[in-house]
Amino acid sequence: MADKKYSPFQTKLYELCNMASAGQLIYAAEVLCDNASRKLGRANKDQREITDQVAETLSNLRETRTKEYLRNQDQGPAEIEYPIHSTSADAGKVA
User: Fold this and answer.
1) How far apart are CA 93 and CA 83, in angstroms?
2) Which end of the chain is less enclosed by CB atoms within 10 A, N or C?
3) What are 15-41's pLDDT values in tens digits?
4) Distance, CA of 59 to CA of 82 (rounded, Å)
């Protein structure tokens, strides 16, 4: 079976997909939808509304991922809870 030939545009797109992180691809998709919406113009109102909705959904997803990332960064290392009283398991030796 012969290798599938891609256009220069497709090649660049696949190269971007291979090198970018998930967050970068989500951002790129949002930007592309915004630009597609503008290029659709007034003549294609239904299609423009769909691309606007997709861009808004991607923006919300990106914001959620950013907030989760920042929340995880602010947590710091997990704390170890030490017992404050003796149990039979520690034979009366509390740290």
Assistant:
1) 10
2) N
3) 999 999 999 999 999 999 999 999 998
4) 43
Q: Is the pTM of this model over 0.85?
A: no
E strand or H helix that includes residue 51: helix 45-75
CA–CA dist 57, 52 (Å, integer): 9
- Whether 71 has a pLDDT exceeding 90, the answer reads no
Name the H helices within 5-44: 8-19, 22-40
Q: Which two tokens stand for residue 4?
A: 């599938």
CA 82, CA 95: separation in Å to the nearest integer? 7
